[in-house]
Every structure is written in C-alpha cells, then in structure tokens.
Amino acid sequence: MKWAKSGLPSVFPKVNNKQSMIFIDNLTDLLRVTIHHPNAANRLFLASDKEALSTHEILSQLIIVYGRTLRSIPMPLAATDYAGKTLMREQAVRRLTKNLEVDLSETTQKLGWEPPFSVIDGLSRTVTGDHYRSS
Questions:
Q1: What is the largest CA-CA distance in the chain?
Q2: How many CB atoms are located within 10 Å of the residue 116 CB?
C-alpha cells in the first residue's frame, strides 16, 4: 500500500503470478457462517477472496484507488530477481513474484459460502476505510 500511495511506477507488469488475499469483511462473513453451519464442525477451511490477482493488478488497483496516475516500468523477471539479490531482499521479491493462490472450492462446496465482496471492492474499501463504517 505504501508503494501505491507513493506514486512510484509498478515494476511488475511482466510478472504473471496469482496472489490470493482476503478482505476483512469477507473473513468475518466466513467466520459467521462457520460458527452456525453444521458442515463446519471440526473442519479446517481455507479462506480467500474469490479472485486471485497478480502483483501488478493489485498494485494497479491500489494506485487507482489512491487517485494516482498508473505508470509502469516493464522490468524483466530476471532483472527483478537480480535486484532482490543485490539489495538482499530476495525473499521479499519472491513473495511479490511467485504464486500464492488458495483453492477455495472445498469452502464454497461444503458451506455454500461465496465472498460477499470482490477483491477490487475489498481493496477500495480498505483504502477508503469504508469497511469500518459499514460494520
């Protein structure tokens, strides 16, 4: 979020990864469902928003919500990896460029649950603080 707020360009347009996230209001809705649903007893469920976005898509959406101009510098992935190694931030770069996608199918099938907010709505509401006012 700091990156998007700063107005710096995205260096991730060539990164074709998928990242799962969960908006806090979606998580609280899922917790409400699991408390009352008979199929939830003694089970572990994965939680995420329905859509997974790439790092560039996440950053782009945040930049737009902050009212900044979307700018990109298409850096090859090898250059991004090299920069991470050089700056001793290899783990951070890996988290931004690799996949971290949750399979939500069992949660939706067993509980009949769908996240009420989209990823884009969740990002927007987080930045603007709307989720605090609607709770």
A1: 52
A2: 13
Q: What is the pTM of this model?
A: 0.82
CA–CA dist 76, 28 (Å, integer): 38
Q: How far is CA 51 from CA 28, 33, 41, 114, in A?
A: 17, 20, 26, 11
- Residue 21's domain comprises 2-134
CB atoms within 10 A of CB 97: 19
Please spell the DSSP secondary structure of 67-132, one letter per residue: TPPP-B----HHHHHHHHHHTT-HHHHHHHHS-B----HHHHHHH----SS-HHHHHHHHHHTHHH
Based on the structure, what is the number of domains in the chain? Answer: 1
Q: How far is CA 17 from the centre of its chain?
A: 11
- Amino acid type, 95: R
What confidence tens digit (pLDDT) does each residue in 64-91 have? 888 888 888 888 888 888 888 899 988 9
CATH number (domain holding residue 84)? 3.40.50.720
